[in-house]
Amino acid sequence: MKPESLVFAAAGALFGLIAGWILGAEQASVRTPGIVPAAAETQAAPASSPAAQAPPQLDQVAVDRLLKVAAADPTSASPRATLGNLYFDAERYQEAAQWYQAALKLDPRNADVSTDLGVSYYYLNQPDRALAQFDRSLQIDARHTKTLLNVGIVRAFGKQDLAGAAKAWEQVLALAPESPEGQAAKRALDAMKGAHPNLPTGPTSSQTPGSN
C-alpha cells in the first residue's frame, strides 16, 4: 500500500496505525491454529504497507520441518497454512500466497486462511484480487469481522473507495462493537469522518447488518 497516495491526508497517521494493526494483528492473532492473517491466527490485516525496514528473516528451520510434514501428509492443510504464515511474517508475500492457496485447496471452507490469502494479494499490489478473495471468505462466514475490517482497509487505501470502506467498518461495528476489530473500525470511521465530514455513512449502532 502506498500511504502517500491516499486521500486521507488529515488522518493518514491514524490510518497507518490501523492498517498495521489489521494486517499485522491478523498475522499475529491467526498464528495459533485457527486473520490478518486470519489463518495464521495472529491477525494479519491489509491496512498498511510493510515497514520500510529490513523484513524479518525467514525461520528456515521451521520451514524445513514443515516442508517434511507437508510432504508426508499431502492431505493436510495445516502445515501449508503455517508455511504461509512463516513466509508472510518474513514479508515474502508471493510464497505466502502460494502456500495459502495450497492450504485452501485442501480446506476450502477455512475463512481465516482465505482472508490471509487476500491480505497477501493486497501486499502484492493486487487490491481487486484481495477484495475478490475477501468475498470468498464472507461467503464462508458472513460475520467474519477480520475480513470485513480488511475489506475496509483495502477499499480505503487500495481503491480510494471511502464509502465502501465506511460500509465495511460499520458492519464490523454492528457485529462486534467491543471487539478489537470493532474498536479499530470505530477509530477508522472517526478518522474518516474527521477528514471527510460530508462523507455519507450509515448508522454505527450495535444492530446487525440488514436489521431494523
Write the layout of secondary structure elements.
Layout: H1 12-30, E1 41-42, H2 60-72, H3 78-89, H4 93-106, H5 111-123, H6 127-140, H7 145-158, H8 162-175, H9 180-195
Characterization of this structure:
The structure is a single chain. 61% of the residues lie in helices and 1% in strands. It has 212 residues and is mainly alpha-helical. It has one domain: Alpha Horseshoe (Serine Threonine Protein Phosphatase 5, Tetratricopeptide repeat). The longest helix has 19 residues, at 12-30.
Brief overview, please?
The protein has helices at residues 12-30, 60-72, 78-89, 93-106, 111-123, 127-140, 145-158, 162-175, 180-195, and one strand spanning 41-42.
Index terms:
single chain; mainly alpha; Serine Threonine Protein Phosphatase 5, Tetratricopeptide repeat; 9 helices; 1% strand; disordered N terminus
Average predicted confidence as pLDDT = 78
- What class would the helix/strand composition place it in? mainly alpha
Coarse shape:
elongated
Estimate percent helicity.
Answer: 55-70%
- Provide the β-strand percentage band: under 5%
Q: Supply the number of structural domains.
A: 1
Outline the biggest β-sheet. Answer: none
CATH architect. name: Alpha Horseshoe
| CATH H-level homologous superfamily name | Tetratricopeptide repeat domain
